[in-house]
């Protein structure tokens, strides 16, 4: 059940989100961590962080993504906080796997831009 | 009143008139059938020149690059010549000629082009025993000469490589028109046909104006064959129409194979065309037919309507290839236009002694300025200068903004003319070309009068 | 298997690693084309050089800057009259190009004096212009001319001018891409941080990686004006040299072209802590998303929604008119790199168009990760494609329209396939809402061009199959 839902979220992110494809592994990790954390907060009713400029950008990306999630995947409104955290955790693992761990991009780990 | 011949005083260039040598070499190369030039240099040296040709002709031409990268700059690029030649030979089974065109980078690095071509020849012989591919060394460092010289250099190199033996007399005439449009090649072929002369035009670029066909076939390539080039040594004579573009090849054929060479004035305008036809008639013994006398008459008839009514006393600035600019200036004199500024765009020191320029100098009864090694900033400054009062600019599309932003009418002529449709199809040479050009000038002036509401009522009745 | 060795590549089998046919169920962990790798000599690749990546693509866009090209004449001649990036000051950038016109003696004895003289001449001839970029080229890099030293001398002699140097000869790297990189990194390290900005809005950003092709920048600027967002610098569409020295003053970097300009956004984040937001500026859906994100960042969501509603009301009906008529059209995209991933979904979602083949000249693997994630199965993804490959791919996928450069456009014309200028646009701008209607209109006019049917007709009696049907 969760796996189908996870597929849907993962499919959405792969297709639409440029932040997962930043130039270097650490940027990708930072974006995935930051945006999914903020999205989790939004979806579970926690106040998202908006302290730093980077927080606010994570918020901007997460906000639009969550709105799309709600529009495309109505089930997400029904999901409980635990399920959301579960799904977001799974989503994060899959994104990290495809864009970092098992990425064939040979430039991902260059130390300079 | 007089004619001043000078050089641009600045060291640098603002808005160049010509591209560099390798660009000209590529233009000569694509005139050969079953030929893909291989430019030994950075990729931009090829990509942009292909784009330039595409802009002018609205056609694609095949030109390859050795794709020089950093390692070649350090260790030499010879392997890339060999890889490039072999890759082309393998993937293009019809290929028969590969001019290897050097650039600034590979000349500075000092790659041994001849040595590598020898290696290529050995490899080709081994891998394709039944096939002859002529690999031509063309030395065209970008820091010498210009596209004008590069065209000439590549033409000569192709002949030096392919025309290696004196063949039996063919009775043909070699015709070297220089860097001209398909419309000019078509005209010259027609003229030769009407005179009953079996001529070979080098390079035969008539099909650079190529069709969209129901069978989707592509025929956008030069029509000069390896056989044509080989047979040039058996021709009865060579006639070169452009002193700076192709005349050296005519001279080479004379020196090596005793094919008598004649260089005529580039046939822009009536008088130059007369002289060309008379020279060819003298050389071949064929008379000038009635049809050309009539065509000449039609052209003069048309120009007669324009010259003293509209053209007289109009001050003209000319820029472009040297043979073109000089020829156009001569044409201007025929139709009462006043060429006041001739811009020649490279550092060839021979321009100043060109007999045609000296002749213009003797003839003109107004101030005329010839600027050698000029750029288009020289044009722009003079167009903006109220002392000059230039009425008309004639030149290629790279000067378009000078006309547009200074509200001076401009006739596109030469290469490239990418901002006007179909000019490559029209002749500029010959009687028909003189008429086309004269009418283009008139219509440009008329349009300008209309859009500026400047005596546009003159045309209310004409 | 999905890496493809085309028939025409049997003699250059290494090309197999550059061409990918996506199959359902696969992703970029399985296959990712090799890219940003050396080109095989003699393949008739489409690539340009790194010098042009710096001069023609980025630096030469600036509307107030002399582009001094230190080299033989061709490098200047060739990077002039090949772009459509207007400016609001009469297109200074497109009207002029400058060269030191290096000749043999300067190659032998060094060209620094000539460069210095040319710089002074250029400033003397155009006294209103006070900014300059000097570029090395292949030969001046090989002989080791010190252009930085020359720039310093000229700046000392002329206190009111500022000069930036780009040392990126054409042979550096493997494509234009290297030139983007050199210019980006040089600029952030040498010029950003030099000038203060007059802040006129609580919301400030840089717009990065948009070169005002066909007027893109100027069109998007209307949105930023409506939203009350101050654009500190446009990198570099319709931009000025000095604005680019103020980039550190922005609160946010919005990146469109991540390939040509991602580097400077990364560095602005690293050095100045300015966050980087990547958006797609082509397509309704994407443009709206980009505006929403920017507005969410600044906390001005209502303004963003109002703008989007206004633009949708104005342009969506026109887009839909074209969408209805473009359903199922098969499109190929053969451009530089990023437009592949910017466009593949937007034409699908907004216009119902199917992208069947995509070729990138200078994209990196990052670009292929993006485009393969977004693109369809059954579509070819090609790095550094060459002419024979294009013929073969056309046979395989039969596109109805190809977005590519003018030269390739002339080539495919003979095959009765219309092209749209995928670099300079046919009749742009193509960005933003209005722009995407322009793109749709141009595509509609291209595929419905009656001449295509006439071209296919053999008047001798055998009527060749019309192209549209042959493609189905």
From TrEMBL, chain A:
Gene Ontology MF terms in the entry: ATP binding; iron-sulfur cluster binding; metal ion binding; nitrogenase activity
Requisite cofactors: iron-sulfur cluster
UniProt keyword terms in alphabetical order: ATP-binding, Iron, Iron-sulfur, Metal-binding, Nitrogen fixation, Nucleotide-binding, Oxidoreductase
One Pfam family from the record: AnfG_VnfG
InterPro entries: Nase_V-Fe_dsu, V/Nase_d_su
Taxonomic superkingdom: Bacteria
Catalytic reaction(s) noted: N2 + 8 reduced [2Fe-2S]-[ferredoxin] + 16 ATP + 16 H2O = H2 + 8 oxidized [2Fe-2S]-[ferredoxin] + 2 NH4(+) + 16 ADP + 16 phosphate + 6 H(+)
EC number, UniProt record: 1.18.6.1
Subunit structure: Hexamer of two alpha, two beta, and two delta chains.
Function: The key enzymatic reactions in nitrogen fixation are catalyzed by the nitrogenase complex, which has 2 components: the iron protein (component 2) and a component 1 which is either a molybdenum-iron protein, a vanadium-iron, or an iron-iron protein.
Name listed for the protein in its UniProt record: nitrogenase
UniProtKB/TrEMBL annotation, chain B:
Residues annotated as domain Nitrogenase/oxidoreductase component: 20-445
InterPro entries named in the record: ChlB/BchB/BchZ, Nase/OxRdtase_comp1, Nase_comp1_CS, Nase_VnfK
Enzyme class: oxidoreductase
SUPFAM superfamilies cross-referenced by the UniProt entry: Helical backbone' metal receptor (SSF53807)
EC number: 1.18.6.1
Provenance organism: Magnetospirillum aberrantis SpK
Protein name in the entry: V-containing nitrogenase subunit beta
Family: Belongs to the NifD/NifK/NifE/NifN family.
Pfam families: Oxidored_nitro
Name of the gene encoding the protein in the UniProt record: vnfK
A GO term for molecular function: nitrogenase activity
Record keywords, A-Z: Nitrogen fixation, Oxidoreductase
Gene Ontology CC, one term: vanadium-iron nitrogenase complex
From TrEMBL, chain C:
Keyword Cell membrane: no
Keywords annotated in UniProt: ATP-binding, Iron, Iron-sulfur, Metal-binding, Nitrogen fixation, Nucleotide-binding, Oxidoreductase
Catalytic reaction equation(s): N2 + 8 reduced [2Fe-2S]-[ferredoxin] + 16 ATP + 16 H2O = H2 + 8 oxidized [2Fe-2S]-[ferredoxin] + 2 NH4(+) + 16 ADP + 16 phosphate + 6 H(+)
Protein name: Nitrogenase protein alpha chain
InterPro entries registered for this protein in UniProt: Nase/OxRdtase_comp1 (IPR000510), Nase_asu (IPR005974), Nase_comp1_asu (IPR010143), Nase_comp1_CS (IPR000318), Nase_V-Fe_asu (IPR010142)
Enzyme Commission number, as recorded: 1.18.6.1
Family statement drawn from the similarity comment of this UniProt entry: Belongs to the NifD/NifK/NifE/NifN family.
Record-level Gene Ontology MF annotations: ATP binding; iron-sulfur cluster binding; nitrogenase activity; vanadium ion binding
Positions of the Nitrogenase/oxidoreductase component domain: 49-447
Co-factor requirement: [8Fe-7S] cluster
Family matches, as PROSITE patterns: NITROGENASE_1_1 (PS00699), NITROGENASE_1_2 (PS00090)
């Amino acid at each position: 059940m969760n796996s189908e839902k996870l597929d849907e979220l993962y499919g959405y992110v792969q297709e639409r989100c440029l932040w997962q494809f930043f130039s270097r592994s650490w940027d990708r990790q930072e974006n995935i961590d930051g945006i999914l954390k903020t999205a989790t907060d939004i979806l579970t009713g926690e106040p998202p962080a908006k302290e730093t400029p980077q927080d606010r950008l994570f918020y901007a990306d997460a906000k639009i993504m969550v709105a799309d999630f709600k529009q495309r995947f109505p089930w997400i409104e029904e999901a409980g906080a635990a399920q959301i955290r579960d799904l977001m955790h799974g989503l994060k693992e899959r994104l990290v796997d495809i864009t970092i761990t098992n990425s064939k991009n040979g430039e991902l780990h260059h130390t300079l831009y | 009143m007089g004619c001043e011949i000078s050089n641009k005083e600045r060291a640098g260039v603002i808005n160049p008139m010509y591209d560099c040598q390798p660009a000209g070499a590529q233009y000569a190369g694509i005139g050969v059938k079953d030929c893909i030039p291989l430019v030994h240099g950075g990729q931009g040296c090829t990509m942009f020149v292909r784009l330039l040709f595409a802009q002018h002709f609205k056609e694609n031409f095949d030109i390859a690059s050795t794709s020089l990268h950093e390692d070649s700059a350090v260790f030499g690029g010879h392997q890339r010549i060999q890889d490039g030649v072999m890759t082309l030979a393998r993937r293009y089974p019809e290929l028969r000629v590969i001019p290897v065109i050097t650039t600034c980078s590979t000349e500075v690095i000092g790659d041994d082009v001849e040595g590598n071509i020898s290696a290529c020849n050995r490899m080709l012989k081994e891998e394709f025993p039944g096939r002859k591919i002529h690999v031509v060394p063309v030395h065209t460092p970008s820091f010498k000469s210009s596209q004008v010289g590069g065209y000439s250099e590549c033409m000569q190199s192709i002949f030096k490589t392919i025309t290696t033996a004196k063949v039996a007399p063919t009775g043909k005439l070699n015709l070297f028109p220089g860097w001209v449009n398909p419309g000019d090649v078509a005209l010259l072929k027609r003229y030769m046909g009407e005179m009953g002369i079996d001529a070979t035009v080098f390079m035969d670029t008539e099909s650079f104006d190529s069709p969209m066909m129901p069978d989707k076939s592509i025929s956008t390539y030069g029509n000069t064959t390896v056989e044509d080039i080989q047979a040039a040594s058996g021709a009865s004579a060579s006639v070169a129409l452009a002193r700076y573009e192709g005349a050296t090849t005519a001279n080479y054929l004379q020196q090596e194979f005793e094919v008598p060479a004649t260089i005529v004035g580039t046939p822009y305008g009536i008088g130059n065309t007369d002289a060309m036809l008379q020279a060819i008639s003298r050389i071949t013994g064929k008379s000038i037919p009635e049809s050309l006398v009539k065509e000449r008459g039609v052209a003069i008839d048309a120009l007669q309507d324009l010259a003293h009514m509209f053209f007289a006393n109009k001050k003209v600035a000319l820029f472009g290839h040297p043979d073109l600019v000089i020829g156009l200036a001569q044409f201007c004199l025929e139709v009462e236009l006043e060429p006041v500024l001739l811009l020649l765009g490279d550092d060839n020191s021979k321009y100043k002694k060109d007999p045609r320029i000296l002749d213009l100098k003797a003839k003109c009864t107004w101030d005329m300025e010839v600027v050698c090694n000029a750029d288009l900033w020289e044009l722009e400054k003079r167009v903006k200068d109220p002392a000059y009062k230039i009425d008309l600019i004639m030149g290629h599309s790279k000067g378009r903004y000078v006309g547009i932003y200074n509200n001076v009418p401009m006739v596109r002529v030469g290469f490239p003319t990418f901002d006007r449709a179909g000019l490559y199809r029209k002749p500029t040479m010959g009687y028909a070309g003189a008429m086309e050009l004269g009418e283009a000038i008139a219509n440009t002036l008329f349009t300008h009068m209309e859009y500026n509401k400047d005596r546009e009522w003159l045309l209310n009745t004409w | 298997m999905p890496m493809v060795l085309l028939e025409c590549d049997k003699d250059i089998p290494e090309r197999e690693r550059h061409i990918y046919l996506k199959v359902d169920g696969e992703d970029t962990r399985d296959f990712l084309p090799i890219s940003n790798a050396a080109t095989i000599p003699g393949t008739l690749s489409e690539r340009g050089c790194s010098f042009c990546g710096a001069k023609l693509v980025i630096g030469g866009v600036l509307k107030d800057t002399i582009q001094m090209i230190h080299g033989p004449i061709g490098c200047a001649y060739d990077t002039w009259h090949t772009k459509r990036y207007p400016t609001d000051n009469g297109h200074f950038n497109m009207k002029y190009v400058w060269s030191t016109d290096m000749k043999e003696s300067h190659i032998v004895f060094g060209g620094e004096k000539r460069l210095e003289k040319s710089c002074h001449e250029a400033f003397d001839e155009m006294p209103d212009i006070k900014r300059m970029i000097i570029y090395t080229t292949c030969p001046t890099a090989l002989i080791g001319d010190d252009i930085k030293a020359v720039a310093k001398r000229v700046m000392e002699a002329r206190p009111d001018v500022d000069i930036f140097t780009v040392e990126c000869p054409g042979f550096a790297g493997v494509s234009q891409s290297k030139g983007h990189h050199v210019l980006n990194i040089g600029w952030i390290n040498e010029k950003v941080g030099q000038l203060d900005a007059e802040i006129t809005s609580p919301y400030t950003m840089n717009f990065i990686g948009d070169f005002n092709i066909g007027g893109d920048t100027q069109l998007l600027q209307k949105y930023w004006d409506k939203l009350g967002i101050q654009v500190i610098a446009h990198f570099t569409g319709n931009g000025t040299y000095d604005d680019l020295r103020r980039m550190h003053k922005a609160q946010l970097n919005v990146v469109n072209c991540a390939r040509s300009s991602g580097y400077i956004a990364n560095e602005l984040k690293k050095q100045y802590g300015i966050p980087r937001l990547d958006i797609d500026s082509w397509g309704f859906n994407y443009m709206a998303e980009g505006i929403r994100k920017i507005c969410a960042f600044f906390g001005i969501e209502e303004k963003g929604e109002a703008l989007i509603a206004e633009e949708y009301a104005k342009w969506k009906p026109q887009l839909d008119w074209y969408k209805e008529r473009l359903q199922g059209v098969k499109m190929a995209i053969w451009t530089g790199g990023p437009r592949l991933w910017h466009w593949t979904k937007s034409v699908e979602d907004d216009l119902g168009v199917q992208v069947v083949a995509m070729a990138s000249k200078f994209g990196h693997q990052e670009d292929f990760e993006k485009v393969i994630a977004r693109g369809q199965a059954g579509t070819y993804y090609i790095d550094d494609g060459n002419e024979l490959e294009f013929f073969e791919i056309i046979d395989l996928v039969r596109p109805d329209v190809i977005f590519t450069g003018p030269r390739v456009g002339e080539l495919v014309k003979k095959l009765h396939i219309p092209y749209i200028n995928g670099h300079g646009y046919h009749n742009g701008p193509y960005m933003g809402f209005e722009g995407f209607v322009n793109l749709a209109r141009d595509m509609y006019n291209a595929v419905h061009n009656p001449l295509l049917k006439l071209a296919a007709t053999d008047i001798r009696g055998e009527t060749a199959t019309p192209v549209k049907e042959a493609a189905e």
